[in-house]
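Final report, closing paragraph on structural work. Over the funding period we assembled a curated collection of sequence-structure pairs, and we close with a single example.
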Amino acid sequence: MPTTAWTTLAILIIMFGLLVWDRLPIWLVFIGTLTAAMTLNLAPAGALLKGYSNIGVITIAVLYPIAAGMYATGAISLLSERFIGLPKSIVAAQLKIFPPVSLASAFLYNTPIVAMMIPAVRDVTRRTGLNGSKLYMGLSYLTMLGGTITLIGTSVNLIVAGLVSEAIAKGQLAGMKPIGIFDPMWIGLPATAA
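Its predicted structure, as stored:
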């Protein structure tokens, strides 16, 4: 193997080690890895930075502060008290929590939705004595499924849409239109409802 391949492998092993060690912020590990790869000229800078220009990555970066703002302002607690209330059974709690969470995750990234709803679900389980595990697991799965309803609901859809748009612009997908915001709905909505 060439020296650049060994160097790249060493950098990736160090990166994964730092991620598993979990003492440094994730963003710092990734920026450090990118900086090392650029400094050692392991690939052209344009190729290394191309992922950061993808519309999916940019959209996710924009949605995180929105979710953090909703959490910091107490909007989540207010919504929890108003819409969830004090359900008397797990099924009643699921019926109050899951549909709005699925709808929200269709338009916001899944991870911040789960992060925002965990305190609300914890609050409900403390006030009612309901088993939280049945709510937390459903919350996780339904945010993932709800994210498949729209183009912006999950990072995978956004990244694929960005790649499709690039391929169309290069003439590689003749006759195909860019993926629209509600195009994934025909698969995502029935999957979420099931």
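The chain has a mean pLDDT of 85. Residues 3-21 form the longest helix (19 residues). We thank the funder for supporting this effort.
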